TrEMBL record:
Domain tRNA nucleotidyltransferase/poly(A) polymerase RNA and SrmB- binding: residue ranges: 176-237
GO biological process, one term: mRNA processing
Start and end residues of each stretch annotated as Disordered: 420-444
Domain named Poly A polymerase head: residues: 14-148
Record protein name field: Poly(A) polymerase
Keyword Coiled coil set for record: no
Family the entry assigns: Belongs to the tRNA nucleotidyltransferase/poly(A) polymerase family.
Gene Ontology terms for molecular function: ATP binding; poly(A) RNA polymerase activity; RNA binding
Pfam families in the cross-refs: PolyA_pol, PolyA_pol_arg_C, PolyA_pol_RNAbd
Domain Polymerase A arginine-rich C-terminal: 308-408
Length: 465
């Protein structure tokens, strides 16, 4: 609300838009807040000079930092191509497939902006100052009906951006809404277009699908519409294995629970869960093959090779940051380590960064692989100790963050007071300068000062004609 009010104070139009309005109307807690405005990214930057930055190339957005929260502020966009008179840089570039590579054509107004949004329920605008909701596409009706309906021609909109297909399924899983027939029908046919989406963006989309509190339902919906195998091709052959489904579903439901408890879900854990059976299966096959080989391959080399292969295959679809890939490798390797309680460097293992996540993973597996109980019981006291230490560290960090925030607030207040003082001085000076023109109204003292100043300027040859 503060961001919207500030933009409006600077005479721009500004609204809260998208998922936050949809979720508020449904009585859900919004994941984030998006603001739409007619100010350009550069103008937005000027207003929030000390707490904003421009991001994105395909689509320029300004991130405005408010406390701990990032508010995404976007300039009205249009679905039309750029008029010739628009400056270069404001472009809407389509690839041959119809996919939008860049989408920076600014829209004239809120109506144009609403038409370039994905679904009617995501195109509701709230002016929190006037307390009015604007709906140009029947979004409120669809909210009442519980329907996800794409704006415009479905095939064109999916060609422009294939991610909209996954978004339709995500909202279906998240909200329990039905997807309208016209929105759903091209998805099976067009799903292969997803391969054209950059794998870095796909990584972000997959995180949103599974890590934001509705992973279990999403997993079911993606399987129902045959999209899961496109996102995780190496796990495709496991989809008719009920043990695999049970394990992934159990893990996802526990991460959904974590999300409800405001705990963070990490991408490496998700990927480790989904691809674990792939690793196990390949290990099994490799061991069978190599056990009968003439030259034995060291176990360590075999594991490294398998891990790298699985991660490289997945990276073709979702480009994982290096740290995520490293954590998956460590977490899986730790499964083999934790299983071996005869190990003689127990304390060193329990002190590793990945230890707690690895234990959590082992515990999940324990539900389906009962023989792991001995290892789980053995590591449990180390896990509890490690968790206590981590909680203490977190509390200390939060306390110091609070201290830092208070200090920052104090400094900001000081800066504001100084700026106000400066502004007051400036306006006083302005008032004085103005009265210089009107000598008749000056006080005797002021007149004398003026004369002195003039004489001094004349003596120094400073008067400009
Ligand atoms: P949530 O934040 O709960 O995941 P959301 O709808 O807010 O859902 P965001 O990714 O935050 O999703 O996007 C904000 C808004 O931007 C959307 O509501 C929609 O209006 C618009 N939008 C996002 N992605 C697209 C897209 N690929 N095509 C068209 N419009 C989009
Ligand atoms: Mg959002």
């Amino acid at each position: 609300m503060r961001v919207v009010a500030t933009l409006q104070k600077h005479h721009y139009e500004a609204y809260l838009v998208g998922g936050c309005i949809r979720d508020l109307l449904l009585g859900k807690k919004p994941k984030d807040f998006d603001v739409s405005t007619n100010a350009t990214p550069e103008q937005i930057r000027q207003i929030f000079i000390s707490n904003s930055r421009i991001i994105g190339r395909r689509f320029k957005i300004v991130h405005v930092l408010q406390g701990k929260e990032i508010i995404e502020v976007t300039t009205f966009r249009s679905n039309q191509s750029a008029p010739a008179k628009q400056r270069s840089g404001r472009t809407r570039v389509k690839a041959e497939s119809g996919m939008l590579i860049r989408d920076n054509v600014y829209g004239k107004n809120i109506i144009e902006d609403s038409q370039r949004r994905d679904f009617t329920i995501n195109a509701l605008y709230l002016d929190p100052v006037k307390k009015v909701i604007y709906d140009f596409n029947g979004g409120l009706y669809d909210m009442q009906q519980g329907v996800i309906d794409i704006i415009g021609d479905p095939e064109t909109r999916y060609s422009e951006d294939p991610v909209r297909m996954i978004r339709a399924l995500r909202f279906c899983a998240k909200l329990g809404f039905k997807i309208s027939r016209r929105t759903l029908s091209p998805i099976k046919k067009m799903a292969s277009n997803l391969s054209a989406v950059s794998n870095a963006r796909m990584f972000e989309e997959v995180n949103k699908l599974f890590l934001t509190g509705h992973g279990l339902q999403t997993f079911r919906t993606l399987r129902k519409y045959d999209i899961f195998k496109l996102l995780f091709p190496s796990a495709a052959e496991l989809l008719d294995n009920q043990n695999y489904i049970n394990f992934v579903e159990y893990a996802l439901s526990s991460s959904d629970k974590r999300y409800m408890e405001d705990k963070r879900n990490m991408p490496h854990f998700l990927y480790a869960v989904i691809l674990w059976a792939v690793f196990q299966k390949r290990m099994f096959i490799c061991n069978q093959t190599y056990n009968s080989a003439v030259v034995l391959v060291p176990q360590n080399k075999l594991i490294s090779g398998l891990l790298n292969d699985i991660i490289a295959e997945q990276n073709k679809i979702t480009d994982m940051p290096m740290a995520v890939a490293d954590s998956i490798r460590s977490l899986w390797r730790m499964q083999l380590t934790l299983d071996d309680i005869e190990n003689n460097n127990i304390d060193e293992i329990a002190a590793r960064n990945i230890f707690r996540a690895s234990y959590d993973f082992l515990e999940l597996r324990g539900k389906f692989e009962p023989y792991l109980k001995t290892a789980i019981d053995f590591w449990n006291p180390y896990y509890i100790k490690s968790k206590e230490l981590a909680d203490k560290r977190k509390a200390r960090k939060e306390e110091s963050f609070g201290r830092k925030a208070r200090k920052k607030e104090k400094l900001a207040a000081k800066k504001k007071a100084y700026e106000d003082k400066l502004a007051a001085k400036k306006s006083r000076k302005k008032a004085n300068t103005e009265s210089f023109d009107d000598e008749a109204n000056l006080s005797a003292k002021r007149k004398k000062q003026l004369e002195k100043a003039r004489a001094w300027r004349a003596a120094m040859h400073l008067d400009v004609k």
